[in-house]
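Why should sequence recovery work at all? Because a backbone constrains its sequence more than one might expect. Tight turns favour small or flexible residues, buried strands favour hydrophobic ones, and helices have their own preferences. The token representation captures these environments compactly. In the example below, the structure is given first.
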């Protein structure tokens, strides 16, 4: 899989993409990640990438030309399955969406900033708009990191135990059940006896019951807010 990220702040990705699962996936050749500075595609002598919005509103808007130049340059070299814009008003990111994206070969992630991007970028180039929640961040860089992490861990070979990702929360529409490890007794707080029984069928039943219970509790909490 290849992921190209368009951003005004490429340095933000250095540490997150060189640790843990993403680093291992890159080292194994399972994924290629390329970070592109949108300013490099500006035709302005000062590398300007933003301007005041028409209509007199406050704030600045990312201009279409540098973004268009970047996308067209990338598309001249290969075809892309999706060109994704990270934006608060996009479709809410989900595990199901991560599963689908993990099956693709080439994607572009566009990180907005300021008041956003010229609407014509979205109309002409963007094929999918994704939000990681109903709140506003300074830019699309952090959402892009979230998306990349969620997608890459699903690529076969990215994590040591392939079954682990399949039992994560939301994979089957349920939150994950409680998990425990050593010590068996921590200051009087003991693990459930069923988990020591060795009865895998009974343990699976307990896990499912706890997952359903946890999911239902969360739904009830959301309704009461």
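From this structural description, the recovered sequence reads:
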């Amino acid at each position: 899989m290849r992921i190209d990220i368009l951003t005004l702040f490429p340095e933000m990705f250095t540490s997150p993409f060189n640790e843990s699962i993403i680093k291992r996936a890159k080292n194994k050749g399972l994924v290629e990640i390329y970070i592109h500075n949108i300013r490099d595609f500006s035709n302005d002598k000062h590398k300007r990438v933003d301007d005041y919005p028409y209509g007199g509103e406050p704030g600045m808007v990312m201009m279409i030309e540098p973004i268009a130049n970047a996308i067209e340059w990338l598309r001249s070299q290969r075809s892309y399955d999706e060109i994704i814009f990270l934006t608060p008003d996009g479709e809410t990111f989900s595990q199901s969406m991560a599963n689908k994206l993990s099956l693709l070969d080439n994607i572009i992630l566009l990180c907005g900033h300021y008041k956003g991007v010229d609407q014509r970028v979205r109309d002409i180039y963007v094929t999918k708009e994704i939000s990681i929640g109903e709140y506003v961040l300074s830019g699309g860089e952090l959402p892009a990191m979230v998306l990349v992490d969620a997608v890459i861990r699903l690529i076969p070979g990215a994590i040591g135990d392939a079954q682990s990702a399949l039992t994560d929360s939301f994979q089957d529409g349920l939150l994950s059940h409680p998990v425990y490890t050593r010590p068996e007794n921590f200051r009087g707080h003991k693990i459930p006896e069923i988990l020591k029984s060795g009865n895998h069928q009974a343990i699976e039943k307990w896990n499912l019951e706890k997952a359903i219970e946890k999911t239902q509790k969360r739904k009830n909490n959301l309704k009461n807010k």
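A few observations help interpret the result. Strands lie at 2-7, 32-37, 50-51, 61-62, 82-92, 106-111, 128-131, 185-186, 189-190.
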